[in-house]
Amino acid sequence: MSDFVKISRDGDVAIVTIDNPPVNALSFQVREPLMQALTSMRDEPSVAAIVIACAGRTFVAGADITEFGKPMQQPELRAILATLETIAKPTVAAIHGTALGGGLELTLGCHFRVADPGAKLGLPEVKLGLLPGGGGTVRLPRLVGALKALKMIVSGTPIGAVEAHEAGLVDAVFEGDLTTHAVNFAREIARKGGPFTPVRDRDDRLGETDLAALDAEAADLARKARGLEAPIACAQSVRNAITLPFDEALAAERALFVKLVASDQSRAQRHLFFAEREAAKIPGKDIVKRRIARVGVIGAGAMGGGIAMAFANGGYPVTLLETSHEALQRGLATIDKNYAVSVARGSLTEDARRQRFAQFKGSTDYADLTDCDLIVEAVFEDMAVKKEVFGKLGAVAKPGAILATNTSYLDINEIAASTSRPQDVLGLHFFSPANVMKLLEIVRADKTAPDALATVVDMARRIGKVAVVVGVCHGFVGNRMLAARGSESEALLLEGATPSQIDKAFTDFGWPMGPFQMGDLAGLDIGWRNRKARGLTAVIADTLCEQGRFGQKTGRGFYLYEAGARTPVPDPEVEVLIRDKAAEKGIAPRAISAEEIIERTLYPLINEGAKILEQGIAARASDIDVVWVNGYGFPIGKGGPMFWAGFEGAARIIERLDHWHQRTGKDVFEPAPLLKRMAETGSWGAGG
Ligand code: 3H9
Q1: What residues line ligand 1, using a CB cutoff of 6 Å?
Q2: Which residues of the chain have pLDDT under 50?
Q3: What is the per-residue DSSP string for 140-203?
Q4: Rounded to an integer, what is the distance from CA 136 to the centroid of its chain?
Q5: 3-class secondary-structure state, position 428
Q6: Could you tell me which residues come within 8 angstroms of residue 665 by beta carbon, excluding any fewer than 6 positions away?
Q7: How far apart are CA 67 and CA 69, in angstroms?
Q8: Is 105 designated active site?
């Protein structure tokens, strides 16, 4: 017996309970006593069957991720599974909460699996840049078929208990006390008598595999992997399960796992796993939070509508405010249409659609916001307009209501000063489309009260957002760094690169799209307006906007778009424009390599990140990574810009920045002191 694994008895059934809060990860401290418990119960004549269960809120949620990259202490999970498979008495896993990764693999070493109706089962290793390394790719296809296993393993998305039951992964789903049901199930099976076939020897479902269909699916997945190695290794390993004898397939899976666990991509993805959880931690965690029962959203345009949907999806009733009845009806109709699309795609049931839509109350009267506990404005990005809104909110909102602005750039301290209650004001910077994008920059203004901040950090989790707390500056973390990237993308055009050449360097690097495709998608007029307000220029982008080329919405931007299509088509007119503007500035075009494109655009971005850290706008380097991966599509396999800087080496980054600084004299190239310290110490400091 140990603190982490306990054995109890219910008559002739032994219950082995794992108790390693918070998620029962299979740490060394669990594996050792678990192995002992299983061998002793195997050899105990008075035991007819064994149930493996977990204490606390979940079944085993996987291997202990913190152990990866360190020498693995014995026994490993593989050895536990091999021992489980020597047990002739029935073994039953009782699954509640989540059985993930090594947790699900542990259940696959059992003869049977029973589950609570709310349980979720999956192999999410791919999200950590890994493949299941405890036999999951070889055993799961034996229960659910190769195609279903491939989809589960390559997506990493868990399935519910009912689906798992239908698929053959779970043998029974029980309402009520799961351990009692599992014990009765085990006893009944033992009474009927064996032999009981371990999953490794069940190959009845392997014969049904259509290898051509499997290969087609794997090829499609490889195409979508965008340079990530893990999804391809997952697909290869599932194929091995079909084409190789069990032990050979298992050995091949192990070899792939060992290679991946040591890879930069997996290190990067594991960094992100912990970075996301770290980002949600703010000082004063035990602070008493305010209650949010109803949310108000001002503005029912694309942004406000998306924000309102995000809240409704998280279960909050929403009051949606517009200036006119027509605008309100238009906004509500768009929301309704968006939900209908989700129903048509099968991601939402008709019932859920009705429930979500019923959360909305429309209004054109500020007085209707008096019962809201959190009010988010998403009106026009203009300081005077925002101040007017906050002035009205100061008058109508109930005492203690949190007043949030969705501004992307404006000074929230100035906005807060326009109310009589600056302690209640903060920024909630959603990313478009707000009901889809995971990132939420929570902006703490100088006078924001700690309990207001803590309340919205909790709220963010409830609506499924990855929250990062940032400070006030122009563009906060994400857009401020984006500006550094943008100015160099434009400079590269003038020096001889084309938009498609730059965008291709980005997609080859692993981004979903390059800066010009992204600009066209978001609308070039947004940046144009913002530059004009600040007296800045971007000669190519400004000229395109002057010509009414705002991007996809006008069918023309840096690229051409056929009616209704989103595929960018290079436009010779734009290339002529770029060369003309370069000639006007006396810049002779030169050949520019993909390597230079990446370094010229991303090194200044990292440099800006270092300045942001120095100024305390972000608390940790890893927070900046979370912003870039979740809000801007920075490739997960590189871990975010600040983590990737570690791969590149700060000394090299400084050397290139110095070089360009001498050539251009631009501030963006002036290396931040923190970057220099990174070069000396190899760390950004906290969260690096
Ligand atoms: C694997 O299994 C490999 C095998 O195939 C092969 C082995 C040979 N390890 O997310 P939360 C911590 S790979 C260590 O906030 P929730 C987490 O950091 C693994 N720590 O809770 C946090 O710590 P803190 C495959 C872990 O309720 C705390 O637990 N499995 C692990 O929102 C609470 O986490 C996965 O990838 C872990 N495995 O969500 C599943 N998991 O409080 C990973 C969590 O100090 N886990 N922690 O910040 C999850 O997806 C979610 O944690 C879960 C709970 C859904 C379980």
Answers
A1: 22-23, 25, 58, 61-66, 77, 98, 100-102, 105, 124-125, 128, 132-134, 136, 274, 277
A2: 687
A3: HHHHH-HHHHHHHHHH---EEHHHHHHHTS-SEE-SS-HHHHHHHHHHHHHHH------GGG--
A4: 23
A5: strand
A6: none
A7: 6
A8: yes
**237 CA to centre of ligand 1 in angstroms:** 23
All structural domains of the chain, each given as residue ranges with its CATH number in brackets, are 5-262 (3.90.226.10), 295-476 (3.40.50.720), 512-584 (1.10.1040.10), 594-687 (1.10.1040.10)
DSSP characters over 476-504: TTHHHHHHHHHHHHHHHHHHT--HHHHHH
Identify the pLDDT of residue 275.
97
> Can you state the angle between helices 539-546 and 524-534, rounded to 10 degrees?
110
pTM: 0.95
| Nearest atom, ligand 1, residue 273 CA | 18
**H or E element in which residue 291 lies:** none
Residue 589: what are its φ and ψ, rounded to 5°?
A: -65, 145
Distance 61 CA to ligand 1 centre (A): 6
Q: Check 85, 105, 253, 322 and give the catalytic one.
A: 105
CA 18 centroid distance within chain: 29
Tokens of 635: 């490739």
Q: Please give the pLDDT value at position 264.
A: 97
Task: Return the residue matching tokens 């839509």.
Answer: 357
In degrees and rounded to multiples of 5, residue 415 shows phi and psi of: -65, -45
Give the phi and the psi of residue 203 in degrees, each rounded to 5.
Answer: -115, 20
The rounded distance, in Å, linking the Cα atoms of 135 and 198 is 13
Q: Which of 4, 18, 20, 23 to mutate to test the pocket of ligand 1 (most atoms within 8 A of CB)?
A: 23
104 CA to centre of ligand 1 in angstroms = 13
- Ligand 1 atom closest to 63 (CA): 2
500, 620 Cβ separation under 8 angstroms: no
As to burial, measured by CB atoms within 10 angstroms (0-12 exposed, 13-18 middle, 19+ buried), residue 564 is exposed
User: Which ligand 1 atom is nearest residue 131's CA?
Assistant: 5
Q: Using CA atoms, how far apart are residues 41 and 48, in angstroms rounded to an integer?
A: 9
Give me the phi and psi of 316, to 5 degrees please: -90, 135
Among the listed residues 85, 125, 229, 608, the single catalytic one is 125
The residue type found at 454 is: A
User: Is 596 annotated as catalytic?
Assistant: no
